[in-house]
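Hi L.,

You mentioned the student needs an example of a multi-chain input paired with its predicted structure. This one should do, with 214 residues in total across all chains.
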Amino acid sequence: MKIIMLGAPGAGKGTQAKKIAEKYEIPHISTGDIFRANIKGGTELGMKAKSYMDQGQLVPDDVTIGMLLDRISAADCANGYVLDGFPRTIPQAESLTKALSERGEKMDYAIDVNVPDEAIVTRMSGRRACLSCGATYHIVYNPPKKADICDVCGEKLVLRDDDKPETVQKRLTVYHEQTQPLIAYYKNAGILVTVDGTKNLNEVFKDITDVLGA
Ligand code: AMP
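Structure written out for the whole complex:
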């Protein structure tokens, strides 16, 4: 099963993507996580991505598309995957559609986790991330067992630079301009599923699995 998660930054698509990956035993592929791992590792790709990310802007398509197409060619993607944070522009979506069709494949679902902007700003200020293993939490909606400590690896949790309020506003503007058009793109492709992302995370997950099946 090949799934795309759509939705504004902070809509909860990353949390849902991880739960989908676990239930259906497919890899969770987050372009944001790949960039952050590269920044941490000090790679050339990481250096290119960092300045865009810190300003709430998108990393250019020429960097992002190749990286993602490489990742989905790996052996662990043979039974499908859930994409979280890709595509984020129409050219990215078109490249993905083209690359898959050349292999006789297509995406199965694009799940839009729908949350109004007002709710996003409140939510993102409560987000905490583990920069070591990529786990994400929310101080109200999905808190770690011990305050500010990652349940998975025990590292200290942080408010990511790109989750700070001034950057969130910029990311929302970028989302509306560049990413929201993908909703119509995947609606036209006949694979769009919209879920109400204002519900609690288990309810949202149930709405998703009702569509994807057991
Ligand atoms: P995320 O963790 O998905 O919220 O992504 C964090 C940041 O990484 C974004 O604000 C962008 O700067 C960058 N990024 C992640 N995925 C993409 C993408 N598909 N295209 C361009 N930039 C991306």
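You could point out the following to them. The pocket of adenosine monophosphate is lined by residues 9, 30-32, 35, 52-53, 56-59, 64, 85-86, 88, 92, 162, 171 (CB under 6 Å). The CA atoms of residues 62 and 92 lie 9 Å apart.

Best wishes,
N.
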